[in-house]
Design brief:
- The protein contains 26 helices and 20 strands.
- The longest helix is centred in the last third of the chain and has 65 residues.
- With about 800 residues, the chain is of the alpha+beta class.
Length: about 800
């Protein structure tokens, strides 16, 4: 439910923070105010709390066991084996009740009775404030709390209407509350108020993380499948929160050791619930990371996983092994809070980067410099100690010499290390500089070595992205239908497969098609276009800023400036605008891509031409062997037979007639082969003319009446020699079937062309056959179907006994 209370800011505030929302929900400021109040109350309690080494170091029995010369206990007068008896008449057991220490104040001098051997000694001890004693911890720790609060406010300031930012604001403030995790359990007003706030809010520290991950960046499948899950978790948390609050209230009525332990067990239960929730949140984060599809969302979840694993695991583990962590904390005061503080910093920083999608605006340079100098400091200081240790080994006790040499070596090391660190950080933020001349040379060198690669478009796209690091980039090439098709893209729509070469076969990615009219109005002088100046921008080019055109490089004036592709460039991952240097380099790369692509096309065309020539040679050789060779062999055999039977006039005449018939067949076959290989005949009108003449001569010689009906053909329609030959042989086979098997008297032959489609109809009035009886479907029909299918066409056969047969060929020219 949204708050009805809204805060209106004065005009002076609006001028100072122009990006701040006009109306801001009041409960956000109330939440921040509560964090400040709770922190002040906690600091007040820590300032009024006294520090007594016995309670911090020796536990429940009061035996001094660690009073060495460096310890604070030794300096106060305690010795190893002393037993604490009383403190201003309070027994040592009374001191274990928290409220007993509330009777003392910082700066007060108390008398401590100790048993040392057989003697009872009284030692005066000046009590210190916990806040003053551990100032080295509280100062950075509260800077951390301020940082956590600031992160939540900053994210909400940048995205005031984003639901993820609102949820993030809430749980940063909940974490800020929970970082003050020690309870007071006393009757002081500040202690009562502060503990009441803590017991009410602390149980929600893990739940808000679950809620955020279920809804970020949008409700996931778990939230959709179990819509009441988060409500059930919140309900359980509210009950636990109220139990803690009322237990604390009842404890205040009678403060004793038993009640103290009971309230601490409630607190332990709250911590366990937090750890269970954080563990569940970890599973949700892992599930989202492996199931989320969008590239941007997946990259965001990488930061989420960093925050969860590095930041929250210590806090998650704490709830399940509380005694172990408490023992560590007893040995090193505030160790647990320190680990939690570092973890929370990593956790919330990673989450804020994820929400802002890498756009940290004006603080990005601060983050870069902080990273750079932090790493440099660690490396230089580390190298100093390494050189110093080596120097002491080499120069023995001459520590000054070792120090001087260590400083010199560290200073020398600083310069190259600084360069390396700077480059690495620039790579992380995608801001590494480039030399345009070197980038262009590397680009051309890589393409020249791969111009004959089937993956050329992918290599071009990859090379360009290696220079600029786009969040969104698409490479379009014109297809045979004069539309533009993506052949490479980097896009959030590609999911985990961030860079996709769509020119590869069997690609399952959806390919965008842009209709040609979009690009027709572009001037022949344009080399690049700003997307905001384009009217009726296609949906396929959303989130694109610049278009760089790829034009033909040809001598022909007509086709010299013809556009056959373009680069569609979105914003860069560095968030920097395109500079003049970027634009000039992209124009150059577009021109070089044009040259390389056309070189690749020429290379492929030459390879195809050589393969076609080789294939044609093999075909001619096969035809000469199968048809001409066998016929000539037959003539030779018949000639020898005629010579042997020269005395038998009747048989010799019959043999000579066969020789004459086979010779004419050889002449016809040679004529067909010559016609087929002649490139001048590689057009549709030549094929039609040859078929018309062939049909007329063939059926006239057989005494069959043939009706020929051909449409007019454009002489400019080219045909490949393979297609021309297959069509002719299919028609020839159809004619031979009619002559051999049909007993037809009339044949109808129709040849037409319309809308890139060849239609051939051959019909006779012969005896026909049963089309359902496949046994009658001889090799002739099988060969016809095979040849037409090789050309990408279809064959339709209709036949009826005593009526005739009809064959239809349909072929689509590409």
């Amino acid at each position: 439910m949204q708050s009805k209370f809204k805060l209106h800011f004065p005009q002076s505030f609006r001028k100072l923070f122009p990006a701040f929302p006009e109306k801001f929900h009041f409960h956000y400021f109330l939440f921040t105010l509560l964090v400040i109040i709770e922190s002040l109350l906690y600091l007040k309690g820590r300032y009024d709390s006294v520090y007594f080494p016995v309670l911090w170091e020796y536990g429940a029995n009061g035996i001094v066991y660690n009073a060495n010369k460096d310890s604070e206990s030794y300096q106060l007068g305690f010795r190893q084996g002393d037993k604490i008896i009383s403190l201003n008449k309070y027994t040592y057991q009374d001191l274990l009740i928290w409220t007993t220490l509330d009777n003392f104040s910082p700066g007060e001098t108390i008398n401590v009775e100790v048993l040392r051997g057989d003697k009872i000694l009284v030692m005066p001890v000046i009590l210190k404030s916990v806040l003053n004693k551990f100032a080295f911890f509280f100062i950075p720790y509260y800077m951390l709390i301020a940082f956590v609060t600031f992160i939540g406010i900053f994210v909400l300031y940048k995205k005031p209407t984003d639901n993820s930012a609102k949820r993030f604001f809430i749980f940063t403030h909940v974490f800020a509350f929970c970082l003050n995790e020690t309870v007071f359990l006393n009757n002081s007003l500040y202690g009562i108020i502060r503990d009441a706030i803590f017991f009410l809010i602390f149980p929600f520290s893990g739940v808000v993380v679950i809620h955020f991950l279920l809804m970020f960046p949008s409700p996931n499948k778990i939230a959709k499948k179990f819509p009441y899950l988060i409500k059930i978790i919140y309900l359980a948390t509210i009950l636990l929160s109220l139990v803690g609050f009322f237990s604390h209230s009842l404890f205040l009525e009678q403060i004793n050791s038993t009640n103290t332990q009971f309230v601490l067990r409630i607190l332990s239960l709250d911590i366990l619930w937090m750890s269970i929730c954080l563990l569940f949140a970890l599973f949700i984060a892992i599930y989202n990371f492996f199931t989320i599809k969008g590239t941007v969302e997946h990259n965001q979840y990488r930061w989420i996983m960093v925050g969860i694993i590095l930041g929250l695991l210590p806090e998650t583990a704490f709830g399940f092994v509380q005694d172990f962590f408490q023992s560590l904390n007893n040995e090193t005061p505030y160790l647990r809070q320190t680990v939690w503080g570092l973890g929370t910093t990593i956790f919330l920083t990673s989450f804020s980067i994820a929400i802002l999608k890498y756009k940290l605006w004006d603080i990005e340079i601060i983050i870069k410099r902080t990273l750079q100098y932090t790493v440099l400091t660690i490396l230089v200081v580390g190298s100093y100690f390494i050189f110093f240790s080596l120097g002491e080994l080499l120069f023995e006790a001459q520590s000054n010499t070792a120090k001087i040499l260590s400083i010199i070596f560290s200073a020398i090391l600083f310069i190259p290390v600084r360069e390396v660190v700077q480059k690495k950080i620039d790579i992380i933020f995608h801001r590494e500089p480039y030399d345009p001349t070197e980038a262009a040379l590397n680009f051309e060198s890589n393409l020249i070595n791969n111009y004959n690669s089937p993956n050329l478009y992918g290599i071009i796209g990859q090379q360009i992205d290696n220079i600029f690091h786009f969040t969104n980039f698409k490479f379009f090439i014109r297809d045979n239908d004069d539309n533009y098709k993506t052949v490479f893209k980097i896009s959030p729509d590609t999911g985990n497969l961030e860079k996709t070469n769509l020119h590869e076969k069997n690609s399952e990615m959806k390919t965008e098609i842009i209709k040609n009219p979009f690009i027709q109005d572009i001037s022949s002088k344009d080399t690049f276009i700003i997307s905001s100046k384009i009217e009726q921008f296609p949906e396929e080019l959303k989130n694109i800023e610049l278009l760089f055109l790829i034009r033909k490089v040809e001598m022909s004036e007509k086709r010299r400036n013809e556009i056959f592709g373009f680069f569609a460039c979105g914003e860069k991952k560095s968030q920097r605008p395109f500079s003049r240097q970027d634009i000039e380099l992209l124009k150059l790369l577009a021109n070089r891509s044009s040259t390389i692509i056309q070189m690749s096309e020429l290379y492929k065309a030459e390879i195809e031409r050589r393969e076609a020539i080789q294939k044609e040679r093999e075909r001619i050789s096969k035809d000469m062997h199968d048809e001409i060779g066998s016929s000539l062999t037959q003539i030779a055999v018949l000639s020898e037979l005629a010579i042997r039977n020269i005395d038998h006039k009747s048989s010799t005449e019959e043999i000579i007639k066969k020789i004459s018939r086979v010779s004419r067949q050889v002449v016809d076959n040679i004529s067909e082969i010559v016609w087929a290989i002649n490139p001048k005949n590689d057009s549709l009108d030549n094929l039609a003319a040859y078929l018309r003449e062939y049909a007329s001569d063939l059926f006239e010689s057989k005494g069959i009446h043939c009706i020929i009906n051909f449409s007019d053909f454009n002489a400019d329609i080219p045909l490949s020699s393979e297609l021309k030959r297959n069509i002719f042989l299919a028609v020839k086979e159809s004619f031979n079937n009619i002559i051999k098997h049909s007993n037809a008297e009339n044949v109808y032959f129709n040849f037409s062309y319309d809308k890139n489609k060849i239609n051939i109809l051959i019909k006779d009035d012969g005896k026909g056959f049963d089309i359902n009886n496949l046994k009658q479907k001889g090799n002739g029909l099988i060969n016809i179907e095979k040849r037409i299918k090789e050309c990408g066409g279809i064959v339709i056969i209709n036949s009826e006994i005593s009526v005739g047969t009809e064959l239809k060929f349909e072929l689509l020219l590409k």
